[in-house]
Specification:
The chain has about 150 residues and is mainly α. Helix content is about 60%, strand content about 10%. It is globular, with a radius of gyration of 20 Å. The chain starts with 16 loop residues before the first helix and ends with a helix.
Length: about 150
């Protein structure tokens, strides 16, 4: 038996702000990823590239990375294992949790983050050029407002 969509089953896809935000975020992410791959960091396009984005200068608890990425503990464990094998990060004991680990960048990982920062600034300069100073400032303000769940 085949199931056919009838006109009654078709639902209109509305144009909405969430879709615009999603497309804008995806376009930004695509530009960052392409530039990182072009800059000699091909693994940045893989899932483990997302791990590096959440590592703070002093390190980040592996459990926090798991929460940010929305992946299982096992999946993040595997991604961090791969980054560790490639010399991008290392794990240190969490001084506040005997079972926890802090993920920190190696010198090689820090170089990747510096390159990512350069690329992010280049994308921002392009947005500033396209929107003008006032438009860019308004965009930043508007995004901060909608990203704040308290408002």
């Amino acid at each position: 038996m085949s199931s056919k969509l009838t006109n009654e089953a078709a639902v209109e896809r509305i144009d909405h702000i969430g879709l615009l935000l999603w497309h804008a975020a995806q376009a930004w992410r695509d530009r960052l990823t392409a530039a990182m791959v072009e800059g000699g960091v091909p693994w940045y396009a893989e899932a483990r590239g997302g791990v590096v984005a959440y590592i703070e200068p002093g390190g980040t608890r592996q459990s926090d990375v798991t929460l940010h990425l929305g992946l299982s503990r096992q999946a993040v464990q595997q991604l961090v294992d791969e980054l560790e094998q490639d010399g991008i990060v290392y794990r240190a004991p969490d001084p506040h949790d005997g079972r926890g680990k802090i993920i920190r960048c190696t010198a090689k990982g820090a170089a990747v983050l510096r390159l990512a920062n350069q690329v992010k600034r280049r994308i921002e300069r392009d947005y500033l050029k396209r929107l003008g100073p006032t438009g860019f400032s308004q965009l930043q303000t508007a995004l901060r407002v909608v990203a704040d769940p308290v408002r």
